[in-house]
Automatic annotation (TrEMBL):
Key words, A-Z: Membrane, Transmembrane, Transmembrane helix
Name this polypeptide is given: P-type ATPase N-terminal domain-containing protein
Signal peptide boundaries: none
Native source organism of the sequence: Heracleum sosnowskyi
This protein's GO CC annotations: plasma membrane
Domain of life of the source: Eukaryota
Length: 226
């Protein structure tokens, strides 16, 4: 499921054009006492499925679900959502009172309008939730290239991705999940990311891979770690 990157993959060493004085940059020393402070917010274990931190977290899968209801919970949850609204709750109380002798109006005049409004709203929400389910299925069935540990890649569905998988994202493709950028086929191991679906911005964002993995490169390949 989570494979270490194969040493058999063809590598290519590239010189940086962005950092002209790269050799003079100060390197951060490994000081675990500073974790939690500025610049030392977290420790990330990359592609280590056997580590204690990876096995003890119980990471969720990559299945996307944006629906509110299921076939078993649609009626009770939808009714609960409807009567959480003050107006609907008021008319529900009015309909209940109409069955008592003190009501100056008939039960039919209060129950029928309330039932029509609640029923129409539930049908509308059910249809919208069904459309969301179709969109979720379309996203979950999209394909991505996942490294198999022997230097080859195999296509699998987005929903089957797991933490630690090494994936290859090509130009103009969507990202299947949050990825740690390992390498790119561009110079300086950079890529340009469009975040319009997240923030509505159409400007391309410049991203550069980790320095320790930027030299790992297979021809026509961009690597990301889930």
């Amino acid at each position: 499921m989570m494979q270490q990157y194969s040493e058999e993959t063809e590598v290519e060493i590239r010189l940086s054009k962005i950092y002209t004085f790269k050799c003079k940059r100060a390197r951060a020393k490994a000081d675990h006492n500073r974790i939690g402070g500025p610049g030392f917010a977290r420790v990330v274990f990359c592609n280590e499925p056997t580590s204690f931190q990876s096995t003890s977290r119980g990471y969720a899968d990559n299945y996307v679900k944006t629906t509110k209801y299921s076939p078993a919970t649609f009626v009770p949850k939808s009714l609960f959502e409807q009567f959480r609204r003050v107006a609907n709750f008021f008319f529900l109380v009015t309909a209940i009172v109409s069955f008592t002798p003190i009501a100056p109006y008939s039960a039919t005049s209060s129950v029928l309008p309330l039932s029509a409004v609640i029923g129409a709203t539930m049908l509308k929400e059910g249809f919208e939730d069904f459309r969301r389910k179709q969109q979720d299925d379309e996203v979950n069935r999209r394909k991505v290239n996942v490294h198999q540990g022997d230097g080859s890649f195999k296509q699998c569905e987005w929903k089957d991705l797991r933490v630690g998988d090494v994936v290859k994202v090509q130009k103009d493709e969507f990202f299947p999940a949050d990825l740690l950028f390992l390498s790119s086929s561009y110079d300086d191991a950079i890529c340009y990311v469009e975040t319009m679906n997240l923030y509505g911005e159409t400007n391309l964002k410049l991203k550069q891979s980790l320095e320790v993995t930027s030299s790992l490169l297979e021809t026509t390949m961009g690597l990301g770690l889930l």
